């Protein structure tokens, strides 16, 4: 009989079948369902599954993706998973050791990495002589079998195959009441006490956040974090005078760079500084900074939330809300104006009377639907006969390399293929192939993104010019905000000088030159005192 049962997995939800199976395996019995359920599966909250004997094997729970939470693939945080496992072990009469295994890049040495984690964390040397591996995933089981470990297939051992834990969790997310009959009482208990069923439904059904907790699978968050940090001083300088002390929230806070500057303001030392971020990579960087002592104010908090999922803060509880480069993402990844209006309403609802929402973002030009002429350089790169049909099929480095080699005119052709918001353009037959006619908003959407070759497939999922200044004023007034005179659209002349003018010319249909339009907006919106 083995001394250990290694049970690798994410273990977000535990089932009654697992309790029966593991108990039989740990005590040397045959782990099938023919003999009925073990009492441990139905043990009550006081834990009546029986005493663990000295000759029973110890179950080593290798909890993978232990550093991930609030993602579609990993909705439940490790410490809650660990709590459920410990409760499960008591009720099922199992001796258990729980070991966290942090997520790693995909590797065919996953089994070896897990065994080393167990040795380093729990001091247990698991070998084929003293351990059986319980695993129902064929690819993972094959890795352990290749190292000589005997394999117990768990759900794969039984015909018909019992419901697998992940399928039960998806049933929960789909509001299928049968999940409660399949889940183990330990899971039901921990889920109820910590409201994890609501969390699972919210995360799994999230229409915006991907499996790994980001907005898009192609986004390089290291690049974004660096860009946020570089721009933080400029952003804070633009909004500082409008910040009202009290409860200050930065929604979409990135890596927390603006809150670091707010933390240094003597006049805000009594304020609560709160960051909200949806992207796992950036949220984890915020938590790391706080742990490393980046913030002097003890009242700095970070939350991982998707603001499209509903209210984040209680009504009339926030003095200042800041958003930077966020609203165009809500527009792009949600249901455009419907999603943006819900967001603006949620900001209004959580703002105290007299409080302020400060929003800095990109902005569409006035008259964004009118047709203009755009002359683009054809001499700054290659001009292939046709764009690549599917850049997403290429490795990331090849995507950036290919785009960097295209002329500005050729990049427009590629942009039209990859851009998630279709637009039309018509080449002008002037003998150069450099001139096209298209809507002004589409022209600016391309021009403000054409140089993002490192994050092209992410950037082409977003629309910068969905709203112009008049649209913003109408939306804010409709929700109930008053627009401060400090608000308004503006043109980023650095972008014009360094990105637009060197490779593009803008003109009316008659050929007369046009000034470059506005590119950004600053909104200072106040909730009236008497509301």
TrEMBL record:
GO terms for biological process: methylation. Residues 31-51 are annotated as: Disordered. The keyword Transcription does not apply. One of its GO terms (molecular function) is methyltransferase activity. The keyword Nucleotide-binding does not apply. Signal peptide: none annotated. Keywords: Methyltransferase, Transferase. It comes from the Bacteria. Residues 41-51 have a biased composition (Low complexity). InterPro entries: SAM-dependent_MTases_sf. This is Class I SAM-dependent methyltransferase. It comes from Micromonospora antibiotica.
